[in-house]
Specification:
The protein is α+β, with helices and mostly antiparallel strands and 382 residues long. It contains 14 helices and ten strands. 17% of the residues are buried. Bound molecules: iron/sulfur cluster. The site of iron/sulfur cluster (SF4) has 13 residues, from helix 3, helix 10 and helix 11.
């Protein structure tokens, strides 16, 4: 008797395999020169400059979605408004791609007509478009760019001011303009979940740009990445470290269940410092909790609305629902189920749920769900 091989059913491929493969081929992913966007952590920047092996493949799905949105929006503003997008700037040290350069009238007049924007800016502006998740949107609106994001855009603007657009195919007509007198930097944040757009602008500050340059110099001067500080708190505590391609090189492997941060304690002086930090953290927490509790109590009967820089909202406070036991007994009887002699509410709820039937609920007399305060930054024109 011959046995016939059974072919296992073919598993559908993940759409993300294609997205990750395409992302790995993007010039930005293959670039080994320090990019302005790599300045998120000094040690990480040094790993890149020292050509260190990447030890960790991060989950890139959120970043890839951000790239898709980013590309779509930039391409549309190029087509509709004639904005200059994705332009390369470089010098001996750095290389970057500026999302948008808004040319002023005098500079755009120096370009061939077909390359001029539909509406010139009042001053030369470097713009960075950042997509952000709804989870951190309030923080973005309230506090604006992080120090690393600010550093990145300052470096872009400084490259434009010192060397102008890079001399590369596709932008030679821009390179011929020479150094560009950038006056303003702008962040254009876009919420990935709602599409909300939030702008923040700053005058170009040469002193801050020198500070950003100094940061890069310090990284370049280090003879090994380990000479530089870890700018983030490590795996499990910092999402930047969780997704860092040099995570294993930076944080030596520890036994399972042991936090990576234990390697930071070398002697009793480190222990004393960690304990002092813990006590200070607890004090800050206690004081923060006290402030919040008092403010929450004071606001308990305030109507929703905009007050100063913040928006007050409320949720909850609705009539509380409870299981309607008599209706449930009736339901059991209709379905020929055995009603326990002593009604066991939770067991009956479980039986109905397992059978795919709805659990009858009724409003609990005089009880309400907890009323929850919602405070968000006040939006313009709210
Ligand atoms: S793991 Fe964290 S601290 Fe270490 S290099 Fe990467 S981002 Fe910096």
């Amino acid at each position: 008797m011959t046995t016939q091989a059974i072919t296992p059913p073919r598993q559908p491929v993940s759409i993300w395999d294609a997205a990750h493969a395409a992302d790995a081929r993007r010039p930005r992913s293959r670039q080994r020169q320090l990019g302005a966007s790599d300045t998120i952590c000094s040690r990480r920047a040094a790993y890149i400059l020292h050509n260190a092996e990447r030890t960790h493949s991060a989950d890139m799905r959120a970043a890839i979605l951000g790239t898709y949105i980013h590309q779509g929006l930039l391409e549309d503003v190029r087509r509709e408004y004639g904005w200059l997008i994705e332009r390369t700037v470089t010098d001996d040290v750095l290389r970057g791609h500026i999302d948008v350069v808004q040319l002023d009238e005098a500079t755009s007049a120096r370009l061939p007509k077909r390359h001029r924007p539909a509406q010139p800016a009042d001053v030369m502006t470097v713009e960075d478009v950042k997509t952000k998740s709804g989870r951190i949107w309030d923080r973005v609106v309230r506090y604006g760019p992080t120090a690393a994001e600010m550093r990145q855009v300052l470096l872009y603007a400084d490259l434009l001011r010192t060397t102008g657009f890079a001399d590369v195919p596709g932008q030679r007509y821009l390179h011929r303009l020479g150094p560009i007198d950038v006056q303003r930097i702008r962040f254009r944040f876009v919420c990935r979940d709602t599409g909300e757009e939030h702008l923040q602008e700053f005058d170009f500050d040469p002193w801050l740009a020198s500070e950003a340059r100094w940061w890069v110099e310090r990284v370049r001067e280090a003879s090994s990445p380990e000479e530089l500080p870890r700018d983030h708190d490590g795996p499990g505590l910092s999402v930047i470290c969780d997704n860092c391609p040099f995570r294993e090189a930076c944080w030596p492997v520890v036994p399972p269940g042991v936090p990576a941060q234990t390697i930071l304690i070398r002697d009793d002086a480190d222990r004393a410092q960690a304990l002092a930090d813990y006590v200070r953290g607890h004090e800050l927490y206690r004081e923060g909790k006290r402030l919040k509790e008092k403010a929450r109590a004071m606001l308990a009967d305030s109507p929703e609305g905009r007050y100063g820089d913040n928006e007050l909202g409320w949720s909850g406070g609705n009539p509380k629902q409870e299981v309607d036991v008599p209706a449930m007994v009736e339901k059991f009887e209709d379905a020929d189920l055995v009603v326990p002699m002593l009604p066991d509410t939770q067991a009956m709820v479980d039986v109905l749920r397992r059978a795919g039937m709805t659990v009858p609920m009724r409003t609990a007399a005089g009880q309400k769900t907890p009323r929850t305060i919602k405070i968000s930054p006040a939006r313009p024109n709210a």
